[in-house]
Design brief:
Elements lengths: L4 H30 L3 H27 L19 H28 L3 H31 L3 H12 L6
Helix pairs in contact: 1-2, 1-3, 2-5, 3-4
């Protein structure tokens, strides 16, 4: 059974939002790498890859249910950044936008009794809880770090040790 035009539009909007997030994270990664904080850059490179992966899962699902993909105008990502804390807060805002969009898809799927889409997006709901929780924890750590460059060095090392899927 093909999905409704409304759900198809929401899925396309979501894919475009995931791609925007991936591009934003890539710019953030570059910023931190340029600042010689390669560990933090690594964290955001992994985030970019993850967002691209989400977009592709959703792209595949859209086609599996008979939908048509429509690439929208991708908003140019921010490329000038303030302090470390501001950048992580920007990332949290991105994730909150993604979460709100996913919740809207789930809500509309439930209202339309589109159980396939509802079930497919359950995984993304759980994923967003993890994403937002991680960023809240990292923001809290940065708040504690303040201007302590030694602590920032350790924070950078911690994020540099992260691997894909971890």
């Amino acid at each position: 059974m093909p999905i409704s035009s409304e759900i198809q539009k929401l899925l396309n909007d979501q894919i475009n939002l995931e791609l925007h997030s991936a591009n934003q994270y890539l710019c953030i990664a570059s910023h931190f790498i340029d600042e010689e904080l390669v560990g933090i850059g690594n964290f955001f490179l992994l985030q970019s890859q993850e967002e691209n992966g989400h977009a592709m899962k959703q792209f595949d699902y859209l086609h599996a249910v008979g939908g048509k993909f429509a690439l929208g105008d991708l908003k140019a990502p921010e490329q000038k950044f303030g302090g470390y804390l501001d950048v992580f807060r920007l990332a949290l805002k991105l994730e909150e936008r993604v979460t709100a969009s996913i919740y809207n898809i789930v809500d509309q799927a439930q209202k339309q009794k589109d159980f396939a889409t509802y079930t497919f997006f359950e995984w993304f709901v759980t994923e967003q809880v993890e994403e937002e929780s991680t960023l809240h924890q990292l923001i809290r750590k940065l708040e504690m770090i303040g201007d302590n460059t030694s602590a920032l060095f350790l924070f950078d090392q911690e994020l540099g040790s992260r691997k894909a899927g971890a």
